[in-house]
Design a protein that fits this description.
single chain, mainly beta, Maltoporin, Chain A, 22-stranded antiparallel beta barrel, 46 strands, 3% helix, globular, disordered N terminus
């Protein structure tokens, strides 16, 4: 058992508010790097927020999951879901201390429920804490009166409703959404485990996703409840299939927020959040060699947790050019169960148990989970940060911040940020930033002792440092931003294969540096047509074998009541080398093919209240493949989404 101690932090920081001119004020440190408003969300022709992130430089959303065939994020050359990205809904953090995995938080937030989506790129741990080492995503939900129904390919069905009322008892808003379908089809003759397809020519990947949210605001007090559940059974992963593959995740929280303006210069905001998360998943990942004496390899996370989170933040405006922000965070988490379901191997890694699973000192069947084992009863995390904003002159501004955090009682680290912005003229400005953050090892990486995954209690936090130089230029009809970044990952936490068995061990590996270039731009052809584009290129190999070059180009047109969006995604080919990291377990390479995808959407406003939308993702049904670094055989790949067409009818009142 760990001793939980508080943190004492003395921080002195210098920061700045950016003034493009007297009419346009922005805070460098607090401003999101990219913001999708409602019009942009409608025009990108995607059904969920993860796919929307394809149109942010440095982001790619692909299906690369080894054990549940889910969409995952690649951010600046790293598979970002396992502890590098913070996902928030209305400012409330969904990540847990137990796993830190956004994937298990169900990334399929329906884009029609989002009013805006804010993305903070690079290390943002000073304000958002552990795991905000590559990006922070904040989804702000709608507060409208609307009903929406949708249908699409593979028996896709979606229904949602939202309501907003301002009464003498406060402001009330809620939304509810249900999505389900058979999932896209995959030809059985391309699946190695054809014996499990039961004579069918095709298999489907059924899914079900529910979301619910309710808000009440009275004066300075806000009460917010949010819940979501995602279910996917009988799915296909790594070109392998079994009808007993199963995945279920739930997330829910209730948040209390209170903000009080003490004086014209000083305000306080307090937030108390209680959250629950649960994941139950298992999937067949490999076929055993000798039947019936040994059976297939199965793998999957299985855990649930409860979290209490308290945040206290204050803002103090010293003068027109100088302001301060201070914050304190405390988290405590308990888990009901924690671990990983693995294959038929016994605890000594020698004998086989046909059709059974070894799970935390207990034998269970594939379809039953049975009793669970607590790895640690409770965890605490403490953090304190300070930020200061200072306008040095009308054209020069500096930003900086510092945070000290003790996470899990064993991972203490300091995160910092410093930036400088200079306005060159009325059309352009340049900024330089240095940021650092850390990712604490999660409980599976530390304590798992099953025969397939071995934890390592000596793991140290993984550190990420980022150096960034940006240039912005704005003309009347067009604008562009170019960013060069150099990213250093040290003490990288990853799985290694010390021998030729199926057993894998977590270790801190060597450092990994990534140098890249990102760009985005808008060009207004005329009053009806606008072009938007992004470009990302890495000048060296990425750690997770992500795409080296990818770009997007969107043509958005609005004529009276008709809006049309044609959105193109281009990804380069990648050759994955054999013998990744410190292991020579992989004997063959893998070619990740070049990909060109087209999404299209047509929106038509019928009268004042009715909106008709026709969306098509991967219009030309291009077949492509993506490498999953968690695989043990580089020849396998996760099939990607085929063409998906849907129609939506929305009524606003």
């Amino acid at each position: 058992m760990f001793k939980f101690n508080s943190i004492i932090l003395l921080s002195l920081v210098v920061s700045q508010t950016v003034l493009a001119n007297e009419a346009q004020t922005q805070t460098v440190f607090n401003q999101a790097s990219h913001v999708f408003d409602q019009q942009q969300i409608k025009s990108h022709g995607v059904t969920n927020v993860y796919n929307l992130l394809n149109f942010v430089p440095g982001f790619q959303a692909v299906m690369t999951s080894n054990n549940s065939a889910h969409t995952q994020l690649q951010v600046r050359g790293v598979a970002a879901d396992s502890g590098y990205v913070v996902l928030m809904v209305d400012g409330v953090k969904l990540n847990t201390l137990l796993i830190n995995d956004v994937l298990m938080g169900s990334p399929y937030f329906d884009s029609t429920l989002a009013q805006t989506v804010e993305i903070y790129t690079g290390p943002n741990a000073v304000r958002f804490g552990n795991n905000a080492s590559l990006a922070v995503i904040n989804i702000i939900t709608k507060k409208t009166n609307r009903l929406s129904i949708a249908g699409g390919d593979f028996n896709h069905q979606n229904a949602s409703a939202s309501l907003y009322r301002n009464t003498g008892y406060g402001e009330f808003s809620f939304f509810i959404m249900d999505t389900q379908g058979d999932g896209q089809q995959y030809a059985s003759d391309n699946i190695p485990s054809a014996s499990y397809v039961l004579g069918e020519d095709y298999i489907n990947q059924p899914y079900k996703h529910d979301q619910f949210s309710i808000n009440w605001q009275l004066g300075n007090y806000v009460l917010h409840y949010y819940s979501e559940e995602h279910q996917q059974d009988g799915f296909l992963n790594n070109q392998s299939y079994h009808q007993n593959n199963q995945f279920n995740s739930t997330n829910r929280f209730i948040s209390n927020q209170y903000q009080y303006q003490l004086t014209d210069q000083f305000n306080v905001k307090a937030e108390l959040t209680y959250g629950e998360s649960e994941v139950k998943s298992v999937a067949r990942i490999d076929e055993a060699g000798i039947r019936p004496f040994s059976e297939d390899y199965w793998f999957g996370p299985n855990w649930s947790s409860r979290k209490l989170d308290f945040n206290l933040m204050t803002n103090y405006t010293w003068s027109d050019t100088l302001s301060f922000e201070f914050g304190v965070q405390w988290q405590q988490q308990e888990q009901d169960k924690a671990g990983i379901v693995t294959s038929h191997l016994t605890p000594d890694g020698q004998d086989s148990l046909p059709l059974d699973l070894y799970y935390l000192d207990a034998i269970q069947s594939v379809t039953e989970y049975g009793p669970y084992t607590n790895l640690l009863q409770s965890i605490e995390s403490h953090g304190i940060f300070s930020v200061m904003s200072w306008q040095m002159s009308p054209i020069d501004h500096v930003s900086a911040g510092i945070r000290l955090e003790r996470n899990h009682g064993f991972a203490d680290d300091v995160s910092t940020h410093i930036g400088y912005n200079r306005i060159l003229n009325q059309k352009s400005h340049v900024s330089v930033e240095y940021s650092e953050a850390f990712r604490a090892p999660n409980f599976i990486e530390l304590f798992s002792q099953d025969p397939y995954l071995h934890g390592n209690e000596s793991l140290q936090p993984e550190k990420i440092r980022s150096y960034q130089l940006s240039y912005d230029y704005t003309e009347q009809d067009w604008k562009a931003t170019v960013t060069a970044f150099y990213q250093q990952q040290s003490k990288v936490i990853a799985l290694t294969f010390p021998d030729s068995s199926q057993r894998r061990f977590y270790n801190n590996l060597n450092n990994k540096d990534i140098f890249g270039l990102e760009a985005k731009g808008d060009y207004k052809l005329n009053q009806h047509i606008k072009l938007q584009g992004t470009l990302t290129h890495y000048f060296n190999d990425t750690y997770e074998q992500a795409f080296q070059t990818f770009a997007t180009l969107s043509l958005l047109s609005q004529i009276n009541r008709l809006t049309i969006g044609v959105n193109n995604i281009l990804r380069s080919a990648v050759d994955v080398k054999a013998g990744l990291d410190s292991s020579d377990f992989a004997s063959t390479g893998f070619n990740q093919n070049a990909t060109y995808l087209v999404n299209a959407v047509v929106n038509y406003q019928l009268g004042r209240s009715i909106l008709l939308s026709l969306k098509a993702e991967n219009v030309f049904d291009q077949s492509h493949k993506v490498y999953d670094p968690s695989q043990t055989d580089n020849q396998l790949y996760v099939p990607q989404q085929t063409r998906f067409v849907s129609f939506t009818l929305t009524y606003e009142f």
